[in-house]
Amino acid sequence: MAEGGEIDPMHQFQVEPLVGAWDPAGGSIVFTNSTMWMLIALAAIWLFMWGGMKRELVPGRWQLAVEGLTGFINNMVSTSIGPKGKKYIPFVFTIFMFILFANMLGLVPIGVVGGHPFTVTSHFVITGTMAIMSFSIVLAVGFWKHGLKFFTLFIPHGTPLPMVPLIFMIELISFMVRPFSLALRLFIAMTAGHILLKVFGSFIVQGMNAGAEYGLLVSLPSFLLIVFISALELLVCAIQAYVFALLTTLYINDAENLH
Amino acid sequence: MPQIDQVMISYASQIVSLLVVLAIIYFGIAKAMLPKVQDTIDARAKRVSDDLAAAETAHQRADEIEETYRNQMNDARSDANGVTTEAKAKAAAENDKRVAAADEKLDAKLAEAEAALATARTAALAEIENVAVEATQDIVAKVSGGTVAAAEAKKAVKEVMANG
Q: Is the pTM of this model over 0.80?
């Protein structure tokens, strides 16, 4: 967004109420651009899944794509957790699909027609909430199934007795850090990628505004770079969704199959 | 950084909309649509494995049928050989019989003919003897003017004829 000739790469992360206004005291619930993009993601996921519901014996392309993705999630959960992981597939599916579609929708190039895509997953409130959900499931399953024995998760097999308190503390800290790493990884990957894209985008515009020689010197390399970074960002979108889902299943596995 | 600047003002809005959307995805899509997709995949996998099993059974059945067919062919071939040999043997026996019968007939005819010949010969010899006896009597009468008894003449002729 140009503000007096400057392009603010942070403006894209602004959450703006589309209906109503913020309560300055905070804690207000309004329909924002973030809400709208979540709903768009929801609609996109539903549309995608709906296309795979033809249930034909010989699948078409769309059905094959849906079956490929569900099979991928199924496979990931069953290899990580085993047969007991079947009940977690809907949850893993939910977070994987939501992150994947939210990430991807943040990259749709509607800026060329004046739109402003908003990346829902670039806010740590969102990623943090999802990380806490995953972490809560791990804790709930762990203590529900194993009770206080769940604490033995922090003592690896074969730890010498004098080392147990130290190892316990280290493992506990690494365990407690999990939701933060889970949330920050996605939030930072999305934020950094979008800032990068915006900065190089502004280089193109400013280079062209500064004249032909600057355009050739700055804008052209920036454009080539932005093409490459866009492809990279698409990859990161998928990888981050995969990493979040995979780590969630691995953490659930810890709770489900203690050691 | 809006993520930090806006935390206090926007957290409730973001969290609530996130939870609502995730709940809709979880119950509306992951719980409702996902199992159907999975069912389709499972049904297909089952169908493929069933078809493969059926194909395997059919293959075995075909092998069995081929085995039976081959055995039947072998049996039929050996049967045919047997029949042929038998027929050959029968034909040969029949032939032999016929040849034997014909031989017998020919032998009988030959014997008959020989017998007839022998009779004729004996008759001829008797005739010649009689003629010779008469001739002897005549010659004796003409030469010596005496008479020779027929028995005597006959005896003399027989003596001469026996010598050749």
A: no
